[in-house]
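Good day; I would like, with your permission, to put a structural problem before you. What I wish to show you is a protein chain and, alongside it, a tokenised description of its three-dimensional fold. Here, with my thanks, is the record as I have it:
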Amino acid sequence: MNGKQQAIEQIEHFMKSDERGILLTGTHQFEKHKLVMRWLNENYRDLLILFRLNLMANITTDSFTTLKKQPKAGETVRLGRNNYQFDSFMSSGTWQKTDRRYHVAIVYPIDPFCRDLKHEALDDLFRKQISKVFLCSWTDIQSYDYTDLKKYYERHIIYDAQEEDPDYHARVIMTTKGIPYR
């Protein structure tokens, strides 16, 4: 089973390891990056975290963060016990507005990188001084080839919703296969 506890254990091992990148996939579409954020909040204080997302406008949606006001690219904001800066992998102009050194980076959703998007945003990320990088998917479509991203991660974690919400898990599985659910 690829549930929450197994994902947390793998995150803990990753954070203690010399590995730099991790790929987090699974059926828990909107929870993978949030699991990472919650775990970091519970286990660390005062980290500087880069959150590289598809669109800056998504920052204030419940699917991404709990922020109510959208920060500017590179602006440091407090979320829980840690500090975050945001930029967009779709807009290289935002990359220069963020710092060069971070404890952690979270990239969500990585799905566009599996669909012909060039990898400049990931290459830029790995030129920065970042200790740990979390690459989090949204929906794992069967045609996605994560081996194209292999140079960015050493460990792959799967976080499925099956234990927490079996019906949701089944719907996501069917959708990723292109099969209508009920």
Summary: The chain has one domain: 4-176. The CA atoms of residues 20 and 136 lie 14 Å apart. The beta strands are 21-25, 48-53, 77-79, 82-88, 101-108, 129-136, 155-158. The mean pLDDT is 91.
